[in-house]
């Protein structure tokens, strides 16, 4: 989720709309609302925030310092002047990047990616066998062919790839894709998106790259890991079949996480 802070509602709405068209969940605040939310938000909520974009409002340098004192959330400040001193002040108070207006949504995405790479050596792309996933808004590729995806499905795939070393549950995916403040959408929509996404990937790859375990969540896997998971499920199915007790198949237990 991306948060935009500016005292002008037309500015926050414009940024939210342009970033939303790129598939990012966004929320706009004026500086007073943001200050109240940020200092009362729990760590779980703050963990769902990918970047905070700081626009124009009084004493914004203090706001940047406050963000950095409580979190490591990347901050991009938007500068509307050409003065060097203003830019240096924003950097000195903790801004991770400073951009000059006008700025396109794709530039924000590129700069967010650059900040992530500086902070945690995040890759520009991630490969899972023949599947190549980008983190700059491009659709994934399979054997060099672009796989066109709706923006929500693409964002879920990117989120799973970015968290490839761990399982993520439905709530984490929902917060990343829809944000914390979208009360008009139920978390269960994640299951629908993933169901459609995995069908497309399975059709193109010949295997299901999204491994699911009840109560544990989802994890993106390569062809070898997928084959091992299927073999393990088959072994368990055979063990149950030998008992004659009519247990459900293990593959049926690997249902979408609640």
Give the SSE map:
Blueprint: E1 2-5, H1 9-21, E2 26-29, H2 31-40, H3 43-47, E3 51-54, H4 60-70, E4 75-79, H5 84-92, E5 97-100, H6 105-120, E6 125-128, E7 131-134, E8 141-142, E9 145-146, H7 151-162, H8 170-178, H9 189-205, E10 210-213, E11 217-220, H10 223-243, H11 250-253
Parallel strand pairs: 1-2, 1-3, 3-4, 4-5
Antiparallel strand pairs: 6-7, 7-8, 8-9, 10-11
Helix pairs in contact: 2-4, 7-9
What count of structural domains? 2
Mean pLDDT: 84
Question: Approximately what portion of the residues adopt beta-strand conformation?
Answer: 15-25%
How many β-strand stretches?
A: 11
The CATH C-level class name of the largest domain: Mainly Alpha
CATH architecture of the largest domain: Orthogonal Bundle
Order of helices and strands: EHEHHEHEHEHEEEEHHHEEHH
Rg (CA only)? 21 Å
Q: What name goes with the CATH superfamily of the largest domain?
A: Winged helix-like DNA-binding domain superfamily/Winged helix DNA-binding domain
What would you call the structural class? Answer: alpha/beta
Give the helix level as a range of percent.
Answer: 40-55%
| Low-pLDDT regions | 250-258
What is the CATH topology classification name of the largest domain? Arc Repressor Mutant, subunit A
| Major β-sheet strand ordering | 2-1-3-4-5
- What coarse outline follows from CA principal-axis ratios? elongated
* Main sheet specs: 5 strands, parallel
